[in-house]
């Protein structure tokens, strides 16, 4: 993969824009595509490449909705993609989901507001009588020309503002929202696309299953990643000093991320063929 720090200029028509939170999520896709050049716009790093005459731009937002929304809007403004993909890892809430499984969710739920956004043209579920009130539900139909995601599992994706790291919390969210998986960015990306009226898809790969308890250091490291590389390195070093046994957990998570990123990259490329 080739990189050069230049500003986007004479940008060709962009077919697809991809928003990933972390480079670790995007490497599987970037490794499968032709050499990418790095450009910088609005302080955001973009990786531009092409595939079968399609101009593709990959943007890294960092973790969380605020960053995802900002980067999505920047990507849409600079490159004007014909459609946009929110991609990355997700945690399983449903006990049937396995590591590396690929989902193309057809319903998004926001954990803080309870709002729902349907991504395919079908009826929204009936209001839940156990809830005091159901918030408004948005619908965005897939327009003609978007790739067929029918080969992937459908389901409900919940976006939260924090890392969901324990089996107990995963089961609670699964029961309350009837959701299949969880992430921290997709809702924000979808909302910006809806505002700009840009066709949107989400593809997520399961990194951790419902019964897996993530190392407690993951929350600290994740929070640090939202700040800077230096803070991330400091948090990682601090975690290892305080609990040397965490090395095994973090190393396994890294290995799982590599294999999951490979599966995700292959799934996205299959949409472009």
How does this structure look, described?
- With 273 residues, the protein is of the alpha/beta class.
- Helix content is 36%, strand content 23%.
- The chain contains seven helices and twelve strands.
- It has helices at 23-32, 65-79, 167-177, 186-196, 217-225, 229-242, 246-272; strands at 16-20, 37-41, 44-51, 54-60, 83-92, 102-103, 107-110, 116-118, 137-139, 156-159, 181-183, 200-208.
- Strands 1, 2, 3, 4, 5, 6, 7, 8, 9, 10, 11 and 12 form a twelve-stranded mixed beta sheet that branches.
- α2 (65-79) runs parallel beside α4 and α5 (217-225) runs antiparallel to α6 (229-242).
- The chain is globular and about 45 Å long.
- The relative contact order is 0.19.
- The model is unreliable at 1-7, 122-127, 224-241 and 243-248 (pLDDT under 50).
Descriptors:
273 residues; 23% strand; alpha/beta
Overall pLDDT metric: 80
Using the CA coordinates, give the radius of gyration: 18 Å
Q: Catalogue the unreliable spans.
A: 1-7, 122-127, 224-241, 243-248
Cα end-to-end separation: 21 Å
Largest sheet: 12 strands, mixed
Strand content: 15-25%
**Strand-pairing-aware structural class:** alpha/beta
Q: What oligomeric state best describes the polypeptide chains here?
A: single chain
Helical percent range? 25-40%
The beta-strand count equals 12
H/E topology pattern: EHEEEHEEEEEEHEHEHHH
Shape: globular
What is the count of helical runs?
7
């Amino acid at each position: 993969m080739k990189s050069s720090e230049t500003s986007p200029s004479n940008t060709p028509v962009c077919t697809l824009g991809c928003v990933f939170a972390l480079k670790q999520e995007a490497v599987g896709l970037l490794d499968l595509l032709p050499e990418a050049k790095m450009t910088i716009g609005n302080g955001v790093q973009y990786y531009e490449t092409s595939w079968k005459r399609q101009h593709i731009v990959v943007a890294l937002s960092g973790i969380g909705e605020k960053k995802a929304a900002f980067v999505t809007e920047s990507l849409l403004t600079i490159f004007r993609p014909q459609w946009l993909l929110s991609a990355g890892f997700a945690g399983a809430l449903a006990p049937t989901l396995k590591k590396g499984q690929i989902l193309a969710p057809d319903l998004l739920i926001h954990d803080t507001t309870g709002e729902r956004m349907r991504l395919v043209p079908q009826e929204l579920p009936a209001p839940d009588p156990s809830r005091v009130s159901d918030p408004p539900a948005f619908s965005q139909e897939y327009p003609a020309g978007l790739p067929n995601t029918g080969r992937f599992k459908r389901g409900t994706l919940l976006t939260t503002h924090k890392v969901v790291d324990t089996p107990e919390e995963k089961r609670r969210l699964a029961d309350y929202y009837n959701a299949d998986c969880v992430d921290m960015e997709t809702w924000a990306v979808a909302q910006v696309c809806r505002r700009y009226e840009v066709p949107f898809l989400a593809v997520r790969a399961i990194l951790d299953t419902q019964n897996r308890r993530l190392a407690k250091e993951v929350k600290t490291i994740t929070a640090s990643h939202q700040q800077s590389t230096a803070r991330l390195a400091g948090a990682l070093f601090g975690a290892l000093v305080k609990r040397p046994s965490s090395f095994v957990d973090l190393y396994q998570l890294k290995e799982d991320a590599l294999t999951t990123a490979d599966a995700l990259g292959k799934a996205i490329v299959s949409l472009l063929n």
